């Protein structure tokens, strides 16, 4: 019978934790949780990421946003269209290079960022509860390692 870490629980023959499975499961659940908190505004986890990025970097290009949220330009295009239709952001050509599109939050987009930040604060409290700072530092180091190894 698997234990909480995904091993067999047998004292003599423990398998390593199923880290890929556990990571993907956690990621799906995190996305669903974030999406449920933003349902009334149509904010998915991906949309929340875009809004947070633009709050910190007004006027970012579509390419910069795609890279920051790890999205393909095609995938991001539909998301940006939905956010624009919802009145959360604007798109405008860069005056210096009209091929580049610059993105900015609207007043409603800035208000939505507050909703996202509040939800993420609640989420961070839930997922870090019961862990020491040292344990969380190891988890953060491991996640950064995984991201770096797979680039």
Low-confidence stretches: none
SSE topology string: HHHHEEHH
Distance between the termini: 34 Å
What is the percent of helical residues? Answer: 55-70%
The strand order across the widest sheet is 1-2
Question: How would you state the average pLDDT, rounded?
Answer: 88
Query: Rough shape?
Result: globular
What is the number of strand segments?
2
Determine the strand fraction and express it as a percent band.
Answer: 5-15%
Total of DSSP H or I helical runs spanning 4+ residues? 6
Rg (CA only): 19 Å
Structural class: mainly alpha
The major pleated sheet works out as: 2 strands, antiparallel
Describe the fold and architecture:
The chain is mainly α and about 150 residues long. The protein is about 60% helix and about 10% strand. A two-stranded antiparallel ribbon has the order 1-2. The longest helix is centred in the last third of the chain and has 22 residues, at about 105-130.
């Amino acid at each position: 019978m698997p234990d909480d870490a995904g091993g067999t629980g047998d004292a003599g023959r423990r398998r390593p934790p199923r880290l890929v499975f556990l990571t993907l499961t956690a990621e799906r659940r995190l996305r669903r949780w974030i999406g449920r908190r933003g349902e009334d505004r149509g904010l998915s986890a991906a949309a929340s990421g875009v809004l947070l990025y633009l709050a910190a970097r007004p006027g970012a290009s579509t390419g910069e946003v795609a890279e920051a949220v790890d999205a393909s330009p095609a995938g991001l295009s539909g998301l940006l269209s939905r956010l624009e239709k919802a009145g959360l952001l604007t798109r405008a050509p860069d005056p210096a290079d009209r091929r580049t599109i610059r993105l900015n939050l609207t007043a409603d987009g800035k208000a939505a960022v507050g909703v996202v930040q509040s939800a993420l604060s609640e989420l961070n409290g839930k997922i870090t509860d019961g862990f020491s700072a040292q344990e969380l530092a190891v988890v953060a180091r491991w996640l950064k390692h995984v991201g770096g190894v797979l680039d």
